[in-house]
Design goal:
257 residues
């Protein structure tokens, strides 16, 4: 399918892709910014999704590399989570083909404010890392379950996948926000690359925009991940709340439509 863009489209879209990469590197939820930017140019839904996966995949690879070099990833837990997320994403996408996401959409309207309030009230939540007190087998099991469940969510519904991963890693596995974020990036990277390949095979990537968008996404991810390395948990906590607010707005918008 041929689709043409004007120079104004690039000028409008690309800064938002940088911002999306910046947000995604810190607390997940970059797609809440990037997808509306693509849609604003009138790009068809599936092509917008494919183009977004292309740009976000490269950005996630770079931010994951920075977190790995900084020692912010529990590699065994992250890798098994990524593997299970691929399975979960396939199951979720298959389920989405035969059922409606409306129930989950309405459920999230209740859950997101509750999770946000809980995050704000629990002052120590995400600020201490006690995951090493848990046995490795226990961490691997919970990491696999987290990857499977969130992978299913990503395939079935999608918005805010990285944000929910950070919350699960922090809440159930007792990582601080920095390590939770690093682990989530490995899982996100796996699911993003798999989705990107799928969209590419079906010709649903607008490369004329996807390539410069990938450059902007990489830049945003690199700036965001550098700030996380320098400022740590306090920064993630603040941006995480912002990501939850954006996610709630998106879910309510979906419900109204």
């Amino acid at each position: 399918m041929l689709f043409s863009l004007t120079p104004i489209d690039f000028i409008i879209i690309l800064p938002f892709i940088f911002l999306a990469g910046f947000l995604d590197a810190i607390a997940g939820g970059g797609g809440l910014i990037s997808l509306p930017a693509y849609w604003s140019a009138g790009i068809p839904a599936h092509m917008a999704l494919g183009t977004n996966k292309f740009s976000s995949s490269f950005g996630t690879v770079f931010s994951t590399g920075r977190y790995f070099r900084a020692g912010m990833i529990d590699v065994p837990v992250a890798v098994i989570g990524a593997a299970m997320a691929l399975l979960g994403s396939w199951l979720g996408a298959s389920t989405a083909m035969i059922t409606s996401a409306n129930f989950l959409n309405y459920l999230l309207i209740i859950l997101i404010p509750a999770i946000t309030v809980l995050t704000l009230l629990r002052r120590k939540f995400g600020f201490t890392d006690s995951a090493n007190l848990l046995k490795l087998g226990y961490r691997l099991t919970l990491g696999a379950l987290a990857g499977l469940v969130i992978g299913f969510y990503d395939g079935f519904f999608g918005p805010g996948t990285g944000t929910f991963l950070i919350l699960i890693y922090s809440g159930l596995l007792h990582y601080d926000f920095v390590r939770a974020n690093g682990n989530s990036k490995v899982v996100n990277m796996a699911s993003n690359v798999a989705a990107m390949v799928t969209f590419a095979v079906h010709g649903q990537i607008l490369y004329a925009l996807a390539i410069p968008a990938a450059v902007c996404g990489i830049a945003g991810n690199m700036v965001g991940s550098k700030m996380v390395v320098l400022r740590g948990n306090k920064l993630i906590h603040k941006v995480l709340v912002l990501a939850m607010i954006l996610l709630l707005a998106r879910v309510i918008y979906n419900a109204i439509l």
